[in-house]
């Protein structure tokens, strides 16, 4: 196993950080690695916002549900789908810009921003830092867009915290490879397949603890009735679609 694969396989989500800062050279290496990721047509339809300032992070934190990692990590990177820069370049070169404010371009921006994010994560972990994906960006995209002063055709997609770990949590469980890999065509799952593929996850000690705490009968009900409810999913989806319209992607 080479060092790159070892870094990937040993990924852990880090939510507690030491007070050690990240020097500019290290951060620059991470950012360079981020922008070297694959990109649609070499357009690079994304931007990265770097937050180090405590006061700025205090403004951002409530819209990440005040997760401690946002304030404790020395650096927060927010990745945005961004066609503003490309459109401005085209306008200044007298090129047509009518075809870039639509869902297709937004999808390019999401995909490329996510690739850049994962490149940054791998680079950071290879340098001994820890990361945590912050999943609340799209929940409060409107408020974050206002704080970041995002112009039209720019939408926040995801963000990560960066810092030196103050914890060493165990590896998170994953479904077996056969659960997610299909050869040649998609092979749908039989009830027996589902039972087999989810058996390990459903019998973890951590799962048994969740079942005891929530009293809902099984892990699937915890996901659907506690963590990701229909009400919440529809509410945040409506808010995010509204931001896409405001930012001229729809």
Radius of gyration: 20 Å
Please, what is the average pLDDT?
A: 97
Fraction in helix = 40-55%
Query: What is the number of helical segments per DSSP (H or I, 4+ residues)?
Result: 12
- Give the N-to-C terminal Cα separation: 45 Å
Q: Give the overall form.
A: globular
Largest sheet: 4 strands, antiparallel
* Percent in strands: 5-15%
Question: Spans of 5+ residues with little confidence (pLDDT < 50)?
Answer: none
Q: What's the CATH first level of the domain at 3-170?
A: Alpha Beta
CATH homologous superfamily grouping of the domain at 3-170:
NADH Oxidase
Adjacency order of strands in the biggest sheet:
1-2-4-3
Structural class: alpha+beta
Instruction: Write down how many β-strands occur, each being a DSSP E stretch of 2 or more residues.
Output: 4
Protein architecture, described:
There is one protein chain. With 250 residues, the chain is of the alpha+beta class. The chain has a domain at 3-170: NADH Oxidase (3-Layer(aba) Sandwich), CATH 3.40.109.10. It has helices at 3-9, 24-35, 54-60, 68-72, 84-92, 103-126, 141-147, 177-180, 191-202, 205-214, 219-227, 230-246, and strands at 46-51, 75-82, 130-134, 154-163. Strands 1-2-4-3 form a four-stranded antiparallel beta sheet, sandwiched between helices. The longest helix is centred in the middle third of the chain and has 24 residues, at 103-126. The protein is globular and about 60 Å long. It starts with a helix and ends with a helix.
